[in-house]
């Protein structure tokens, strides 16, 4: 079924429910006038997510909203605009993301977990509340209701650093202040604040458009313990080479392990198992001032014999304390090789054997884990002697004795002739 066919199957959420509820006239009609509408998902489409934040309401936790949407959906622009306005008001303590299901496979996969019926559909805290439509009063009410839910005492920390070439360094920790283990799932969302990739049905960019998960895993945090990690997320490698530092947000959400029955077509249609979000935090990347490592030092012999293995010590320090790699080239036919990473200041031992006599240069460069590189360090090594002396070869000795049978008696004894 092509996209054009999909559009012909769309049904208005508003119209569908009006048909089911003809008798209640005036009050229902007035309420519906405040709704923008939603459309049914085509049978071969899947679903998406949303997430949002604001920081003024006094909530027990930052509420996490996931919104299923699609570029072909004529009712989705109203939802896109409404959530953008709510977030900009800063009256509510929430984070959100628009996951564009028909354009992003990961967004579609996540939306499918909600067993959706309509687009747009908004999910508060993983499905505690669900609304397949656009209504400001409902959005506000559900934000405040989710924000009042009693949640486990989790405290998270998140810092995001913009590195070179669309790479993002994510440092996070989650502390469990409860007296028992916390079992659940941690998800880290990469979000483009104003999408450069996808527009809604009216041609406006999606706001807080989900791009990719930087992490998505089961967690088990010990009582009064914590988990932490550092992640390097590469936008180019994930298929997003056009992202910029000032247009990216990272959202960390922690979901509990208890399943709750919820419905994507309220009050009882399209059920799914909801796992509530108990903790949420967001951060935008800051630019890292990354200094390159110092030029390495090389210690070892500067002369010797070809065919002999020699040992050299190399080391450097990184001004930022970053771990470093070493790239070594011994100017022979062995080429360049890199090894590491090693701690800043750590002495590293390398060995090499030159197979032919001559003068060589050992070249060593240090590169930190964020790709900042030092200048090349050099050490000149001469190999004036070779062990490949023809006079010591058995074939030559045999020929010499055969030619002069009465000469070199000592050599005859040594050779066994």
What is the CATH topology descriptor of the largest domain?
A: Immunoglobulin-like
State the end-to-end CA separation: 91 Å
- Share in β-strands: 35-45%
User: How many helix segments?
Assistant: 8
Q: Could you name the CATH class of the largest domain?
A: Mainly Beta
Strands, helices and their partners?
Elements (H helix, E strand, L loop, with lengths): L2 H6 L4 H8 L5 H8 L5 E2 L22 E7 L6 H14 L4 E7 L4 H8 L5 E2 L1 E4 L4 E3 L4 H12 L6 E9 L4 E10 L5 E18 L5 E17 L4 E9 L13 E9 L3 E6 L3 E6 L2 E7 L2 E2 L9 E3 L3 E3 L3 E7 L8 E6 L6 E7 L5 E6 L4 E11 L8 E9 L8 H10 L5 H7 L2
Parallel strand pairs: 2-3, 7-16, 18-24
Antiparallel strand pairs: 1-4, 2-5, 5-6, 7-8, 8-11, 9-10, 9-12, 12-15, 13-14, 17-19, 19-22, 20-21, 20-23, 23-24
Name a few traits of the molecule.
417 residues, alpha+beta, Immunoglobulin-like, 2 domains, 5-stranded mixed beta sheet, 4-stranded mixed beta sheet, 24 strands, 18% helix
Give the structure's gist in a few sentences.
This protein is α+β, with helices and mostly antiparallel strands and 417 residues long.
Walk me through this protein's architecture.
There is one protein chain. The chain is α+β, with helices and mostly antiparallel strands. The chain folds into two domains: 3-287, Immunoglobulin-like (Sandwich); 297-385, Immunoglobulin-like (Sandwich). 18% of the residues lie in helices and 41% in strands. The protein contains eight helices and 24 strands. The protein has a five-stranded mixed beta sheet, with no helix packed on it. Strands 3-2-5-6 form a four-stranded mixed beta sheet, sandwiched between helices. It is elongated. Mean pLDDT is 85; it is low at 1-36, 43-55 and 388-392.
């Amino acid at each position: 079924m092509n996209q054009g066919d999909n559009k012909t199957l769309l049904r208005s959420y508003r119209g569908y429910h009006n048909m089911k509820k003809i008798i209640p006239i005036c009050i229902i009609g007035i309420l519906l006038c405040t709704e923008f509408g939603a459309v049914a998902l085509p049978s071969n489409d899947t679903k998406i997510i949303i997430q949002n934040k604001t920081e003024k309401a006094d909530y027990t936790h930052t509420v996490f909203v996931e919104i299923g949407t699609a570029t072909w959906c004529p009712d989705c622009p109203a939802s896109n605009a409404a959530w953008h306005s709510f977030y900009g008001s800063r009256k509510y303590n929430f984070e959100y993301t628009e996951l564009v299901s028909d354009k992003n496979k990961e967004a579609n996969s996540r939306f499918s977990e909600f067993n959706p019926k309509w687009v747009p559909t908004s999910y508060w805290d993983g499905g505690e509340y669900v609304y397949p439509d656009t209504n400001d009063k409902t959005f506000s009410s559900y934000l405040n209701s989710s924000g009042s839910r009693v949640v486990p005492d989790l405290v998270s920390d998140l810092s995001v650093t913009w590195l070179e070439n669309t790479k993002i360094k994510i440092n996070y920790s989650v502390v469990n202040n409860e007296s028992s283990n916390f079992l659940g799932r941690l998800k880290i969302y990469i979000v483009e604040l104003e999408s450069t990739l996808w527009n809604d049905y009216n041609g406006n960019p999606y706001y807080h458009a989900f791009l990719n998960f930087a992490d998505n895993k089961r967690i088990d945090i010990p009582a009064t313990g914590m988990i932490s990690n550092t992640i390097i997320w590469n936008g180019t490698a994930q298929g997003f080479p056009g992202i910029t530092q000032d247009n990216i947000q990272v959202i960390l959400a922690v979901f509990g392990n208890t399943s709750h029955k919820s419905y994507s077509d309220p009050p009882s249609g399209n059920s799914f198992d909801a796992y509530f979000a108990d903790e949420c935090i967001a951060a935008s990347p800051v630019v890292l001032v990354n200094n390159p490592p110092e030029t390495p030092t090389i210690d070892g012999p500067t002369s010797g014999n070809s065919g002999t293995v020699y040992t050299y010590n190399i080391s450097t320090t990184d001004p930022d304390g970053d771990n470093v790699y070493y790239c070594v080239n011994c100017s022979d036919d062995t080429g360049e090789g890199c090894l590491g990473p090693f701690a800043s200041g750590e002495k590293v031992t390398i060995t090499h054997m030159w197979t032919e006599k001559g003068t060589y240069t050992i070249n060593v460069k240090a590169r930190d884990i964020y790709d900042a590189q030092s200048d090349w360090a050099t050490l000149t090594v001469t190999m004036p002697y070779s062990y490949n002396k023809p006079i010591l070869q058995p074939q030559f000795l045999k020929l010499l004795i055969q030619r002069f049978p009465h000469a070199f008696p000592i050599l005859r004894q040594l050779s066994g002739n």
